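[Meeting: bench + compute handoff]

Bench side (C.D.) handed over the final construct sequence. Compute side (W.E.) agreed to return the predicted structure before the next meeting so the bench team could plan truncations. Sequence as handed over:
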Amino acid sequence: MAKDILSVIRAHINTSSKGQRLIAQFILSSYDKAAFMTAGKLGRTVGVSESTVVRFAAGLGYDGYPAMQKALQEMIRNRLTCVQRMEVSNDRIGDHDILSMVMQSDMEKIRMTMEEVSRSSFQAAVSALISARRIYLLGVRSAAAITSFMGFYFNLMFPDVVLMQATAVSEVFEQMLRIGPEDVLLGVSFPRYSRRTVKALQFAQDRGATVIAITDSETSPLAPIANCTLIAKSDMASFVDSLVAPLSLVNALIVALGRAMNRDLSATFGALEQIWDTYQVYAKEEDLGGYE
């Protein structure tokens, strides 16, 4: 299959039946909406039968309509503007309960992530992080929340962690000035993919560092650059990036690192508990009701 499904549709449109041309024209003009329609809804929208839609997908070389729909969805994730995302989300939710729809979608993304993430890549990431001289973490825009969360725990676990601030492209490279073969860069990005993150991963790879990517699919621009790619399914809830599954993956990564470093971490957290108690970092039961 050609990677760009729209090019495939254009190539077949002149040899299609009248009904299939209606489907093709609708997809070409409104692919952002078509990608999230069932075969039945797409057929009703253009005035053809559901079976005609299924035959249209088969005519393009797909195993069925779900396979064509998946190709459409993967193609558009990095193309939709915030306004288009809001429109698509409103169409998908319709009159349904928003809370239920969004949370059901998040649960589905966790299930898909659990099934698709490579266990060997996951273990390779754990091994690379444990043996790294220095760990660099990079996530921009909404992905910064993921790396900030990781940074909090990594700084408790490892002696040298750089949580990169990516306010400008030049600043990214300045913070990575001394990255080398003994270091690891862990980059996080989801549609719409950050160009800064892609460039930073390429820079790290050129310097011989180990590159770990957390992203949504093997077609992500981060995947070809990374030494190991951890797939976590994201979704668009209106203009909001759903990062529930990526965060769950990160939780698993932190737990796995903790298990592998168990003896060293016990000493570290023992010392931290004394510091927290001395400087009253956490409220105690007797403090509740009157502390600042």
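W.E. noted at the follow-up: The two ends are 62 Å apart (CA to CA). C.D. will use this when planning the next construct.
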